[in-house]
What we know:
The chain is mostly helical. Helices cover about 70% and strands about 0% of the residues. It comes from Mycolicibacterium chubuense. GO terms for molecular function: heme binding; oxygen binding. This is Group 3 truncated hemoglobin ctb.
Amino acid sequence: MADAASAGAGRRDLATRRDIEVLLRRFYNEAFRDEILAPPFAELASHGLEQHLPVMCDFWETVLFRAGLYRRNALTVHRRIHECTPLSAVHFTRWLAVWTATVDQMYQGPVAEHAKIHAGRIAAAMNRRLTGVDDPGRPHRSLRTAIKEQPCAF
């Protein structure tokens, strides 16, 4: 796989809610087919994206553009998933790898970089809060290091 800088060459930055929706659709398409991510995403895949997508667009539009649309607690939803399909650092590492690769394939620029950085923070925080496992010192860095060691190629 090409490195992140060349993967997004010639691509524009994330700029609109529609950009976020297109990114999320591609991301979920990859996640549903991924051997590690498919089990925790099974219920979402079976019920379809159409109800979930507006919520995720609200979340990422709030994160990236300060839209103030997302007012839910993401940890609550992920706790329910964790109860059905126990999540581990392997899941969060893979989620981050697929997210990063998808962003890099589609967009480049400061907002795209922010989407990847924030996703790393989310992955580390969710892992820590759901599993109680925290890499001594820097969980964000350990997940990012794992991504570099096992990049996602599709």
